Amino acid sequence: MLFPLWVRRLKRGVLFSAVRIAACSVRGNVTYTQGQSPEPRIREYFYYIDHQGQLFLDDTRVKNFITCFKDQHFLVFFFSRLCRNETGRYQDSFPFLSLCGRERNFVRCDDRPVVFTQILGAEEEERGGEVVSEAAELLSFCGGGKKLSVPFRPQCLFMQPKTGRLYHPSPERAGAVGLVRSALAIELSSCFEYAPGQAQTGQPTHFHWAGLRHRLTNELAVHFTLDPGAQPNE
């Protein structure tokens, strides 16, 4: 069994799903073999991210919590190197890439490669006898805890009109838009305010958080095919 180089480099004790690497896989018109070497000293692997932010080898037949990658060291290593695929190889089928030395790790996803899974509260510490906040709240993504996170910007939450899915800005290199995991989106749903008479059938206009009423900017609407209701708030 041939494991990706970055897995072999990780310190002992890192957990890695036992999966077959050598089998040839076909997806649509794309054929690949995990660990293939298209040129000397280069190897290529193929991954999939589901709408819950779970990472799998793309050809894993049964994709669930048991078969996904779970070790945080590995996830941080993988996602911190995630960027758009501009290699000229597999760009249509695997639009993202995570590089490790001479290894190309091609990535496709159910929706977005960044999936926010939890909100981390502001940390506090004591300085000069006073308790002060160290940082703002963070949105953590893809199982990386604080190491994979962005500042939570409530006013930038965007509910996509066609699907009802919730999005938040993500690192630019990883597509600029991240999906909010459905379980977290449900928790946040009660914080949205809608225009009078629209109940929860229209586009929300405000978001209530930490005692503040945030007017939604809908700035992420430009990343989607817009419906009239998805236009940025004036």
UniProtKB/TrEMBL annotation:
Q: Sorted alphabetically, which Pfam families does this protein's record hold? A: DUF4505
Q: Which InterPro entries match?
A: DUF4505
What protein family does this chain belong to?
Belongs to the UPF0598 family.
What protein am I looking at?
Chromosome 8 open reading frame 82
Q: Which organism is it from?
A: Lepisosteus oculatus
